[in-house]
Amino acid sequence: MKKLMAANWKMYKTRAEAEQTAKELVRLVGSLPEDREVLVFPPFTSIDVVTSVFEGHAGFFVGGQDFYTEQEGAFTGEIAPSMLVDCGARYGLAGHSERRHVLGETDVFVGDKTAFGLASGLKVVLCVGELLEERKADKVQEVLSRQIRAGLKGVPHDVDPASLAVAYEPVWAIGTGEVAGSDEIKDAHAICRNELIELFGDKGNDIRILYGGSVKPDNCSGIISLDNVDGVLVGGASLQGESFSKIVLA
Ligand code: PEP
């Protein structure tokens, strides 16, 4: 299974800046190791420019940070999976903690989105993760099980495992500089893996589980060598080609 090294650029970068960072990333990564894939989630407005930069570079993919649960209609401000595909995106992100906790997305809506994105031909990265108070209250297992079951509720049992990934992102580690410890990561990823096996049988072993939360060039190689860590999802440290290229090659 190739490690998926994913960048979430959130609401940063003009088109010119996105193009420059993508070019720098491709240049600094050089020939991508066989066991790695790169995925960048730029703002919607830069999906096409990053797609153009990645053209001809095997293993480099682009995704949309969000999408809606309809193909078209009177949904002002929303974007359909097919529109992302039309701009060059092959992946979509569902349930990022900022959408859950800043924009109020529910487990059910995130689940509808994941199922609809997959049915529309996108590969989907479903984000899950507990709040600090939930960790302190010993509720990590409960929260992850709930979010994974609801998030994957409408996904068919015979799903292609390559079309789905789960990103474990403890909310208290996102953008805080406070990375989760090795045991915390291993335990949480084991919970995710067990849920995936319960839902999809043996295929659950082939669904990638990414870690996200203050991944940096100097902590990435330790994290991706842990059991059940099949890649990373990186926010802050993915904004510069220099630091993200080091993460990709870690
Ligand atoms: C993220 O945005 O998904 C994320 C993990 O951010 P950061 O790497 O900055 O913690």
Automatic annotation (TrEMBL):
Keyword Cytoplasm appears in the UniProt entry: yes
Statement: the UniProt record of this protein carries the keyword Cytoplasm: yes
Protein name in the entry: Triosephosphate isomerase
One of the record's GO molecular function terms: triose-phosphate isomerase activity
Key words, A-Z: Cytoplasm, Gluconeogenesis, Glycolysis, Isomerase
Positions bound to substrate: 8-10, 175, 214, 235-236
Described function: Involved in the gluconeogenesis. Catalyzes stereospecifically the conversion of dihydroxyacetone phosphate (DHAP) to D-glyceraldehyde-3-phosphate (G3P).
Assembly mode: Homodimer.
Reactions it catalyzes: D-glyceraldehyde 3-phosphate = dihydroxyacetone phosphate
Source superkingdom: Bacteria
UniProt-listed PANTHER family: TRIOSEPHOSPHATE ISOMERASE (PTHR21139)
Compartments it resides in: Cytoplasm
EC number: 5.3.1.1
GO cellular component, one term: cytosol
Protein family membership: Belongs to the triosephosphate isomerase family.
Residues the record marks as active site: 96, 169
This protein's pathway: Carbohydrate degradation; glycolysis; D-glyceraldehyde 3-phosphate from glycerone phosphate: step 1/1; Carbohydrate biosynthesis; gluconeogenesis
Name of encoding gene: tpiA
EC top class, as a word: isomerase
InterPro entries: Aldolase_TIM, TIM_sf, TrioseP_Isoase_bac/euk, Triosephosphate_isomerase, Triosephosphate_isomerase_AS
GO biological process: gluconeogenesis; glyceraldehyde-3-phosphate biosynthetic process; glycerol catabolic process; glycolytic process
